[in-house]
Write a structure and sequence with these properties.
Blueprint lengths: L3 E3 L6 E3 L1 E4 L10 H13 L4 E3 L8 H10 L8 E6 L15 H15 L4 E6 L8 H13 L3 E6 L4 H13 L4 E4 L14 H8 L2 E4 L30 H5 L5 H8 L2 H7 L3 H10 L4 E6 L4 H7 L9 H10 L20
Parallel strand pairs: 3-4, 3-10, 4-5, 5-6, 6-7, 7-8, 8-9, 9-10
Antiparallel strand pairs: 1-2
Helix pairs in contact: 1-2, 1-11, 2-3, 3-4, 4-5, 5-6
């Protein structure tokens, strides 16, 4: 079964393998398959589920809500997010204004079929809204009981520090950050993680397999497998494009003997690698079919020897991105 970890310094425990439905529910995967994946996740011991209003323009929340219907609500940890344009994408259907946050939480709860979410997250930093306004809205969401905890996603270390200072003044605390993090994408290690440790935030990391590249299924010099994310024109292809270079794909193939020596598959190695960081509370995984979950949850509880961690670094030398400046939010609200 999947191991639990505390979410940052809070008292909330979440499964260190968390199920997320970005790029799948409502877009890549039919509703029946999506429901089967959610039920398989539950059977495997996953109780934490991450979504966002922007995924498939609100449809992903609806699919997750239907898939979780009938489950004991107290036994689940449901996360969602607000920031990106949704619905008809009008001028106030985006960002972290008080109007959008208050309307956003109500819409998310309605679609998810629940009275509250365990974690409500600022999906990016909003330069168009005073931070005080955003934090006050989140404080009111917590006091109303519509969200139990507040987190952020892809905020810089300085933004996290400023947000936590205001949150504390307003009677709540930020408990989490949701950044991209993998053996290939390590940009949070220099600044975001030390700041988060100091301030009590845990990382709920997305794309721990670098959009699937660290699974090893993409081979240098060959076309991507049919039906893979690299062939998806609804968003997956664009996200994975940065990794689809032969030098990177060749480096990833160098992880095969490392994984074999550790008794793991390549996806399991990728997930276990991010979970070795003590500031990581959970790694988010998606699935287009239930069997993927059955393999990936076996990474839970795995402890990698220092020799294995060093071998990963050696194999990926030259392919890893570490520049903290790559943690960014749009300077202007997206339309």
């Amino acid at each position: 079964m999947v191991t639990y970890r505390h979410l940052g310094s809070s008292g909330l425990k979440i499964t260190e393998i968390t199920y997320g439905n970005w790029l799948t529910h409502g877009s890549q995967v039919e509703a029946d398959t999506a429901t089967a994946c959610v039920h398989t996740a539950l059977d495997l011991g996953i109780t934490s589920f991450d979504t966002a209003d922007v995924y498939a323009n609100t449809v992903a929340e609806e699919v997750l809500g239907r898939a979780l219907a009938g489950q004991r609500r107290e036994s689940l940890e449901i996360f969602t997010k607000v920031y990106w344009p949704v619905g008809p994408k009008g001028p106030n259907d985006v960002g972290l204004s008080r109007k959008h946050i208050m309307e956003g939480i109500d819409g998310s709860l309605r679609r998810l079929g629940t009275d509250y979410v365990d974690l409500y997250q600022a999906h990016r930093y909003d330069y168009a809204t005073p931070l005080e306004e955003t934090m006050q809205a989140f404080a009111d969401v917590v006091r109303s009981g519509k969200a139990l905890y507040i987190g952020v996603s892809e905020w810089t270390a300085d933004q996290i520090r400023a947000g936590q200072e205001l949150a504390t003044q307003m009677g709540f605390r930020l408990v989490s950050n949701q950044p991209q993090y993998s053996a290939l994408w390590r940009v949070i290690e220099e600044k975001v993680i030390p700041t988060s440790k100091e301030l009590g935030l845990g990382q709920i990391v997305w794309s721990p397999m670098a959009q699937g590249v660290l699974s090893g299924k993409y081979l240098p010099g060959q076309k991507p497998p049919a039906g893979s994310r690299a062939t998806d024109d609804k968003g997956g292809q664009q996200m994975i494009s940065r990794w689809m270079r032969d030098d990177i794909l060749t480096a990833v193939q160098g992880l095969r003997p490392v994984a074999q020596e550790a008794g793991l598959s390549l996806p399991q190695l990728a997930l276990a690698w991010v979970l070795q960081n003590p500031n990581v509370s959970a790694a988010i995984i998606g699935a287009s079919r239930p069997e993927q979950l059955e393999e990936n949850v076996r990474a839970s509880g795995v402890v990698l020897d220092p020799e294995v961690m060093a071998a990963v670094d050696t194999a990926l030398q030259g392919a890893v991105l570490t520049d903290p400046a790559l943690t960014t939010s749009p300077q202007e609200r997206p339309a």
